[in-house]
């Protein structure tokens, strides 16, 4: 197993893998210059900052995540990411579908009151070790036991009595449902506004106030998440672009790399096992 700390200073890399449990994806990366566009995951993002400091916008606020802090992102929450210092940041994340998290934990309604939780170096190292092991685990029983350990590490920061959505989010639920259902089709402001009975620009202002992104940014986040799923199934990039409402394969490549820190082709290679031993994605 390669030593991740032995990489040359300043080198950016990104590595995805699926450890053999449906609904789980592991991501390990170091970024210095890369900036993530607004994007979302239909999964909980649970991870640890190993080195440096990340700055990201999430739930309408700016957050700083220094080394030895845990990061907890809710499903469908649009967020960004960039380095706060010239050294960049190195981190590990597990993306776990909500139903899988509930199955592992035996508890429903998981949510986190804070996106960043400073912790001890020992605790951060323990979480990093579990995520590192998940990156290489091949036996299903080992994967499930490691996931259970990860959830145990995160449980003290979670609440399991789900808060009711705010009135604002309930009002825009038909818009989100529509975008998830028709993401591949061209959209216009007037049509989305009609879904909730608002004038177009009043809708735009209220939507952005509620979700901290524009409807177009939300649509692109949904499209890229869908594209990620199709790429994971082995679909050719050109077909994925057409199926998700993107202009062409070049558009997919540009937007995918900005949101996920890796090109569609390299992402597929890694999931297919060609880069299993933590091949580096050079930016």
Automatic annotation (TrEMBL):
The keyword Transcription applies. Keywords: DNA-binding, Transcription, Transcription regulation. Pfam families: AraC_binding, HTH_18. Residues 173-270 form the HTH araC/xylS-type domain. One of its GO terms (molecular function) is DNA-binding transcription factor activity. It comes from the Bacteria. PANTHER family: HTH-TYPE TRANSCRIPTIONAL ACTIVATOR RHAS-RELATED (PTHR46796), TRANSCRIPTIONAL REGULATORY PROTEIN (PTHR46796:SF2). This is AraC family transcriptional regulator. It comes from Rhodoferax aquaticus.
